[in-house]
Amino acid sequence: MKTREDLIARVLKNLGVLAAGQSPSDEDRAEVDDLIDPVCAKLLDDGVAKLNGDEIDDAAYLPLARIVGEQAMTPYGISGQKAAEIKADAEQARTDLKLAYRVYDARPPMRLEQFWGRRGGSAPINSRGRPITPPEDIDLDVTVDGGRRG
């Protein structure tokens, strides 16, 4: 597990603000720290991944750093070719996170019942191509108001 401080340092390294072996200044740390929670909330809202900015899973660490780095380009005045590269990396990171955190629906597929009250046309057919008839014990005389008048 990576920490918030690890994420901040990685974002600054990705942006080229922090050289290897340096530690982030308080201003740089605060600038990136303000972006982490909104980025995590946006990823959750977009259905990409549910991430916590405080304890980051190793699999999400690098993609999250690239996405936060995209949001940090403006405060650090990054533009041109470097900005295009960062945006492309962030888009790839979103795809990676979406695949890694895909949520599978464990419910069985919904079973569809035949609608017996078709108007006009032919009777519904089964998978063998034979007409389907309703069971004998089903009363097909259905009224909207429950049979009451008045």
List keywords for this structure.
single chain, 150 residues, mainly alpha, two-stranded antiparallel ribbon, 4 helices, 2 strands
Please characterize this protein's 3D structure.
- The protein is 44% helix and 3% strand.
- The chain has 150 residues and is an all-alpha fold.
- It has a two-stranded antiparallel ribbon with strand order 1-2.
- The N and C termini lie far apart (70 Å).
- The mean pLDDT is 81.
Question: What's the Cα radius of gyration?
Answer: 28 Å
H and E order: EHHEHH
Distance between the termini: 70 Å
* Secondary structure tally: strands: 2
What value does the average pLDDT take? 81
| Spatial strand arrangement across the major sheet | 1-2
| Range of helix content | 40-55%
Count of alpha and pi helical runs: 4
Q: Please give the largest β-sheet.
A: 2 strands, antiparallel
Structural class of the helices, strands and pairings?
A: mainly alpha
Short description:
By secondary structure, this protein is mainly alpha-helical. It is built from four helices and two strands, in the order E-H-H-E-H-H.
Summarize the helices and strands and which ones pair or pack.
Layout: E1 2-3, H1 4-15, H2 26-45, E2 55-56, H3 58-71, H4 81-100
Antiparallel strand pairs: 1-2
Helix pairs in contact: 1-2, 1-3, 2-3, 3-4
